[in-house]
Design brief:
With about 230 residues, this protein is mainly α. About 50% of the residues lie in helices and about 5% in strands. The chain contains seven helices and five strands. The strands form two sheets. The protein has a three-stranded antiparallel β-sheet with strand order 1-5-2. A two-stranded antiparallel ribbon has the order 3-4. β3 and β4 form a beta hairpin. The protein is elongated, with a radius of gyration of 55 Å. The termini are far apart.
Amino acid sequence: MSFNKWPKRSAEKNYFMVPNEIFSIGLDYREISLYSYLLQCENRETYQCYPSYKTIGHAIGMSENTVAKYVRQLEEKGLIYTEPTIMQSKDGKPLNGNLLYTIRPIPGVLEAFYERQFRQAEEAAARYRAAELLKKSNAQERCGNGKRRRRPPAGGFRRREKPQAARQEKSLALFCASPATSARSAGSFGRLKLASLRGEISTDGVSFPQSPVLQGFSRMSYSKKEELNE
């Protein structure tokens, strides 16, 4: 008796086809499991099936709440379409039945996937442009704060001070042109005259005024000062 290890099976009865595109449209492995089970249950003519959450969860190892969650995700991504059904009890009362699943054609699924990708790319580009504009505006504000103009003083703008050499030259010209001397220079001048009278310093070619004028003091000759000192 011969034994055939690989018995022949009908491709229509014992197998079902899964589109290759479901592995390239960003599906989760649980979504792929659920979609494959619905493909296995669907009617080949109407492309519809109506298994319950409990039946699906028992087949692919999920709870009913988890099955409901991934059913909604498949519907949002355009792979299936669900419709509520109504059934009657023995008493004739209407009851909510299982959902009726319709497997949508894969070309429409791919078109919806590409539209989502394009929309996400546009949103990412818009966010990038907004971030660049915000960054540029912040940089301009920082530059503007660093170059803020100073306010003028209450009395107006101050005059620019002249260089030190010009000030010294002006003060020297005023000193040489004025016949009067300051208190400090007058004191030095008097000491120089007294030393010349004593013979300690030669005074050839140098004339001493009899009464130098002091700025800021009353005009008084040396003779009067000597009389006051006596």
